[in-house]
Each structure stands twice: as C-alpha cells, then as structure tokens.
TrEMBL record:
Protein name as it appears in the record: FAD-dependent oxidoreductase
Pfam families registered for this protein in UniProt: DAO (PF01266)
UniProt organism field: Streptomyces longwoodensis
InterPro entries for the chain: FAD-dep_OxRdtase, FAD/NAD-bd_sf
Organism domain of life: Bacteria
Domain FAD dependent oxidoreductase span(s) in chain numbering: 36-396
Gene Ontology cellular component annotations, sorted alphabetically: cytoplasm
Residues annotated as signal peptide: none
C-alpha cells in the first residue's frame, strides 16, 4: 500500500518514542528495602527531585519507584514547551498578594534557564532551541484577550515581552487569519523524551536507585507499598501527577485530564517557506479550547489540544491511544492555521494525562511530621514547573529553615477534592463543550467581546 494512504500511528505512547526509541526497562524492586527518601513516579517531577537531592547530599539513599518506565507519563508525551507559565499564579496573587506572585513568576523565568543549563552541564541533548513562546490571536475576541493577557503578564514583571500586530506576526510565522501575537523570550522548544531519558541516566549516574515496572499501591507515612515489597524511608514523595487517582485514597485529589497531539511528516522546504517560523518559537493561540505546537528539530509540526478531556471514573491511560474524532479535530486545527499543509500527512497521534486540582493551582508540599510530600497539579504547564517543584521539595526535605523557594506562595497550598462521579464527568464534559461553542460563537460574531459562555464556564470550573 502507498504509505501516504495509511492513517497515523495511534498511541505507541507518543511520537517522541517512535522517534527516539523506547527505553530498556530497569529491574523492578526485588523485595523490601530501606532508603532515606523514596520517590513514587519517574517523570520529570520525580527525577528532578532525585537529581537535586543527590546533588545537595551525595550520601542520601534515594530510591525512585516507577510503575512502567521513566517517562511513561506526560513527561514522555508533552508538547515540549519549556516555558515560564505556572498554573494558579493569579489565584496565588489573590491569596498572598501581588508581590508574592511576582516572586513566583520570577522563579519560573529562572527555571527555564535552569533546565537549559543543567541539561547542557549533564550532556543531555534534548533538541533545545531557545526561540521563546508566541501566542497568536485569530479573531477580534481573541485579539482583545491577547492584549489583556499581554498587559497582565507585563504586570508580573515580564518587561521583555513583545506585542505584535498582524504584519509583525506574519513576519515571524504565517498563521492564517492571525491579527496579532504576544511573544515572550522565556521559553524554549525541547524534545520531551530526550530530556526525560537523559535525566533518568544522569540521576542513575549520581547513584540514585531506580526500580521500573514497580507500581506503588499505597503510600503511608514512611512506607511505599508495592506488590514486590515495601520501601521504608523517613520521606515518601508522591510524584504521580495525572495517575494520582489510581493510588489508594487519592481518587478525588487531582482530576486526570487528557491532552492529545499529532505530529506531521517532515515538511518540505517549500512548505516551510510558506509558513516561515524560522525562530522556532513554540506556538499557541488564544482560543478557549486552545492549541499548542512546536517546530521539531527534524522539521515536523507537533500540535496538540484538548481532545476527549476526561474519562469517566478518572480512568487514565491505554498507552496514549486517542480517539479518531480527536485526531480529525487536531488535523483541522493544523490546516486552519496553515492551509499550505492541506496535503501533509499526519504520521502519529497520541494522548496523555495531566493532573488538574479542583482550583487549577499547582502545589508542592511536605509534612515533616509524617514525612509525606508531593508536587503536581500542573494542569498543562509542567515541563519547567516540575523543576521548580523538585528544587523546592529538596529544600523542604533537607531543612526546616525557610528558603527562597519554600516561601513561594504555591508551597503548602490546600485545595478541596473533586466531586464524586457522575458529577465530575458531567462537569468536565460540559466545560469543554462550552469552550468549543464559545470559540465558534467568537469566530462567527467577530466582535471583540469574550463569549459570556466561556466566562461562565471558567467561573463554574473554579478556574478564576
Ligand atoms: C499531551 C500533553 C502535552 C503537554 N504539553 C506540555 C507542554 O508543552 N509544556 C508544559 O509545560 N507542559 C506540558 N504538559 C504537561 C507536562 O508534560 C506535565 O505537567 C509534566 O510532564 C508532569 O511531570 P510529572 O513527573 O509530574 O508527571 P508524569 O510525567 O505523568 O510522571 C508520573 C509518573 O508516575 C508514574 N506512576 C504513576 N502512578 C504510579 C504508581 N502508583 N507507582 C509508581 N509509579 C507511578 C507514571 O508511570 C509516570 O511515569 C503536557 C502534558 C500532556 C499530557
């Protein structure tokens, strides 16, 4: 069969693994064991935490327990936007004051630099390209939101952010119907899997023990319980993000929300000439059901958005398989943005899970009395935030004296749990259907006001 007639590979965890290869698995936990710190989950959060703990104190015995393999979750499937966004900043400003949130934003800006610097120091080649982040508006309502968003970000001290009109936007990237854009230098493109694989290898080289194919079924003070034995440690850190609902007692803690992506075949020089995008900034938009994309190092477009956002009962995963309707919807976004790609083949489609707290605010916490800690609830902004969370967990474990990081406003934040089913399922599906309707209304009305539907949906969802 002509390969161009074939549909995309669906699942296989992600395109990034198809591209870079699945890793060999490390051996599972052989039986009961002791450690100083046990980390549950081998994504960016768990691995960065192990990295910084071991760097700070090489004598610490740090063990990572990973249900599948390091990078199986969102850390091996994401859009590769290493950027300075953090879920909940505006709420933290309301709760702790504007200055506290400005400190958090500055810490996030510095985190982008930190990840790039550590990757370079550790010899991790993650296809990093520092082109910043460009967010475009394609309707009058999106443009009004873009301008408000731009001014809002400036108020958090991002004075190097730039606002572009339609012509200036087109000089950077030719997105159909784009009427303006906001650009920040605090972002870079990465290859998510190269980053997570390199990080796992660096952590292991420091002397951290990693056991894969080892599911933790229960976390108790000083115990991480698995079918193969229990690891006892004064500190047990939960770094399971979108999979947290599978742990005993955690079903309603963070809602596992799906995000789906597609990757095109490598584009031709003519196609790239039509699009531009020479600075390789990561690309997003201002729609309510927003999209995100990157130009990959090998000349493809990897593009994502919310597909089927949430499965009943907090079910999480089937190795990244995604629904045909979602693939089609993402393909439509691709060609709406870049009509020149109408004939381009989509090679791969996949999905992954994010962790969404009831108030959409990321958190990092350690209770020194029980030794239980966790970090997550990053919603869609975890590639950089996980690194800040990890350095904060390090400080929380190693000292009870407040540090610059442990006094940031997202530390020790408490939030109520999600509603039981079927309310949870109904709420999320209604929310995303509403966002899609709001986007359609804004496109057809072409007036600058944000659809009141979306504003209402945000309020009901607890997002603002
Ligand atoms: C499709 C998609 C696109 C995204 N794009 C971006 C982006 O461009 N930029 C951005 O900033 N963020 C993005 N994100 C979010 C970002 O990828 C995540 O916030 C981040 O990777 C979270 O890392 P983590 O280590 O906390 O969680 P994960 O990477 O999900 O790791 C959790 C790990 O825990 C393991 N685990 C789970 N339960 C257990 C258990 N019981 N026992 C042992 N191990 C367990 C899992 O197997 C997994 O490996 C995206 C997410 C998705 C899904």
């Amino acid at each position: 069969m002509d390969s161009s007639a074939r549909g995309p590979v669906n699942g296989g965890i992600s395109f990034w693994y198809a591209h870079d290869g699945l890793p060999d698995r490390r051996p599972p936990l052989p039986g009961d064991a002791d450690a100083d710190v046990v980390i549950v989950g081998g994504g960016y959060t768990g691995l960065w935490t192990a990295y910084y703990l071991k760097k700070a104190d090489p004598s610490l015995r740090v063990t990572v327990l990973e249900r599948s393999f390091c990078g199986y979750g969102a850390s091996g499937r994401n859009g590769g936007w290493l950027y300075n966004g953090i879920a909940g900043r505006d709420r933290y400003a309301k709760l702790h004051g504007h200055e506290a949130a400005v400190r958090l934003q500055r810490a996030m800006n510095a985190t982008v630099d930190e990840v790039i610097a550590v990757a370079a120091a550790e010899g991790i080649d993650a296809d990093v390209h520092r082109g910043g982040v460009l967010e475009v508006a394609r309707t009058p309502a999106q443009l009004a939101r873009l301008k408000a968003f731009h001014a809002h970000e400036l108020s958090y001290g991002e004075h190097d952010r730039e606002l572009y009109d339609a012509t200036e936007t087109a000089a950077r990237i030719r997105v159909a119907d784009a009427v303006g854009a906001s650009w920040t230098p605090h972002g870079a493109r990465v290859h998510p899997v190269k980053l997570v694989k390199g990080l796992a290898a660096a952590v292991e080289a420091l002397g951290v023990t990693i056991h894969e194919s080892t599911p933790v079924t229960e976390i108790r003070p000083r115990h991480a319980v698995t079918p193969y034995g229990t690891v006892r440690a004064p500190y047990v850190l939960r770094c399971t993000e979108g999979f947290t609902a599978d742990l005993k007692g955690q079903r309603r803690t963070w809602l596992p929300m799906n995000s789906s992506m597609i990757a095109t075949e490598p584009l031709t020089d003519e196609q790239w000439a039509a699009i531009g995008w020479e600075d390789r900034a990561t690309l997003g938009d201002m729609a309510h059901a927003y999209m995100y994309a990157q130009r990959t190092a090998d000349g493809r477009i990897a593009l994502g958005g919310r597909g089927v956002p949430y499965r009943f009962g907090s079910r999480t995963d089937n190795d990244g398989r995604t629904q045909e309707a979602t693939i089609e919807a993402l393909r439509e976004v691709l060609t709406a943005f870049f009509p020149a790609l109408a004939g381009a083949r989509v090679e791969h489609a996949w999905s992954g899970v994010l962790g969404v707290p009831r108030d959409w605010c990321a958190t990092v916490t350690l209770d020194r009395a029980t030794g239980l800690g966790w970090a997550g609830g990053y919603v869609g902004s975890g590639v950089a935030t996980t690194n800040l969370a990890a350095r904060t967990l390090r400080d929380l474990v190693l000292t009870d004296t407040p540090t610059d990081l442990t006094t940031l406003p997202w530390v020790h934040h408490k939030v109520r749990r999600w509603e039981p089913e079927p309310l949870r399922w109904l709420a999320v599906h209604t929310l995303y259907a509403t966002y899609r309707t709001a986007d359609h209304r804004e496109e057809s009305l072409r007036t600058p006001g944000t659809s009141r539907l979306a504003t209402a949906a945000n309020r009901i969802a607890g997002r603002h």
